């Protein structure tokens, strides 16, 4: 077990190094330099050249890369040009917003998908199954941003049930009100995100349940005279649940990519919106940091899923 | 000829003809015939197919008759013309440009990019999956590490960064940039099927008789997983429509003077547009929904045709 995890982590190291080189080269390819933000327009070009020199930015790319990595490990990602504050502090503020939204979406996705998958599998070929399969077919292929736009139009503007912008109401005061207002703001994006990302879990669980229905242990449980409801709840569901838990790691990747659209449509101040704004302002230090963070989060998500899968399924460990 | 057979073999020529006919009538029909039967049996699928093919042909031809630079000129007299008026039957946007015309040209651009992206990324993904799955061993290990790395990349962000770095880009460069990143799903699927297929006896027999490896991969294994390839390509076409439109929606797709379904939907980012001037973005949104549902429905029918136990059409 530990060998598998260790090997998996060893493979990760070169991936992270290549990612950081790629991000660094992309940042180099962008016009401008890290000091454009911290100087005023009247600054002497010689001064900038001096700053470049003392920060080791005048050498060949590999020595610059080394300096950048050393700074990275000291937690120094530079200053943001647009917001005039350290990138680490800026992103830390936005990251909590994104993570709350992602967490809520994920919990809701599971809350919707698990009963649906079991229900569809249990009533295979009957009306509920047909309805659920139609639902997964509809949600499978429609691009997510279209759903967000139509959703915010119907529920945010026409019906006026939900706020359409921001992460908290400006009039909110007191901790209870603050939490309530925050929750109210992630409700609509969370529901839309959850409703449209259940497909994988529902389909997987449905086929698992259908397979399990005809397996020997279920037949034994039935022969013993256990009530059907309990058989589904204690025998089939528990057996199908662990592989499903492994999906949690992979869904981080999807949620992060989706966060760019969600936060743009809902003007929700998280990392995705920060990225889009930074691109518009050519705020390179922020862009570099965000691409790196998203890449590493993706990697950790995959790692988490792989570890859960190898815990659950011994066959994966042998490979 | 018949006499010759009579002399050489114990089966008479008449019997041989009869047996041949029997075998042909009982033989499995070709893939194309199975798919056609499936569409004939499922009327909604037939409707979806006609809608998609008809619509794509319509926008391709109609877009030829529209002068794009002239269409994109600002015409302040038509400022937010309401729909169903004599001049613009779908209304006009804040610059007085006809929504109907933008919709046609935009559909042409978006569908064209989706088709190109599907063609390039599927070809690459299929080749990648076949090679990776067939050779197994070190080749597969190396290719899988590349795959893992690509999966880790925050694709959307890297594409946006690339688009901002490249100074002059057009529809073709954009398609190529997308193709760099959207082949993984296909390659994974094809690889897992190829792994199973490469263990089968016909592959072993072919290897023993000394067939060239590439011939085995592309002439023998590939035709055997063709149904999977057809289904996957159709479904990725439906997904790829969302790729370019999504980036254009964010403002990083096609340049602003080239209309796309995404830029039309981006009109909804303005709170005034989304409520008062719904005609500037809603038709494009509905069009994407209908297109994706129809293509995906066709994909479901193809998947059914590929799986003998689920077919609805008569096989003979």
Automatic annotation (TrEMBL), chain A:
Keyword Nucleotidyltransferase appears in the UniProt entry: no
Keyword terms, alphabetized: Cell membrane, Membrane, Transmembrane, Transmembrane helix, Transport
Transmembrane region(s): 9-27, 99-122, 134-162, 182-205, 241-266, 286-312
Topology with respect to the bilayer: Multi-pass membrane protein
Keyword Nuclease: no
Family indicated by similarity: Belongs to the binding-protein-dependent transport system permease family.
Protein name (Swiss-Prot/TrEMBL): ABC-type dipeptide oligopeptide nickel transport system, permease component
UniProtKB/TrEMBL annotation, chain B:
Entry annotated with the keyword Transport: yes
Pfam families xrefs: BPD_transp_1 (PF00528), OppC_N (PF12911)
Subcellular location: Cell membrane
Matching Gene3D superfamilies: MetI-like (1.10.3720.10)
One GO-annotated biological process of the protein: transmembrane transport
Chain ranges of the ABC transmembrane type-1 domain: 107-299
Keywords, comma-separated and alphabetical: Cell membrane, Membrane, Transmembrane, Transmembrane helix, Transport
Record PROSITE patterns: ABC_TM1
Record GO cellular component, one term: plasma membrane
Residue ranges crossing the lipid bilayer per the database entry: 45-66, 111-135, 155-183
InterPro entries with a match to the protein in the record: BP-dependent_transpt_permease, MetI-like, MetI-like_sf, OppC_N
SUPFAM superfamilies named among the record's database cross-references: MetI-like
Keyword Transmembrane: yes
Main location: membrane
Membrane topology according to the record: Multi-pass membrane protein
Family as reported in the entry's similarity comment: Belongs to the binding-protein-dependent transport system permease family.
Classification via PANTHER family: D,D-DIPEPTIDE TRANSPORT SYSTEM PERMEASE PROTEIN DDPC-RELATED, OLIGOPEPTIDE TRANSPORT SYSTEM PERMEASE PROTEIN APPC
Name of the protein: ABC-type dipeptide oligopeptide nickel transport system, permease component
Organism: Levilactobacillus senmaizukei DSM 21775 = NBRC 103853
Lineage of origin: Bacteria, Bacillati, Bacillota, Bacilli, Lactobacillales
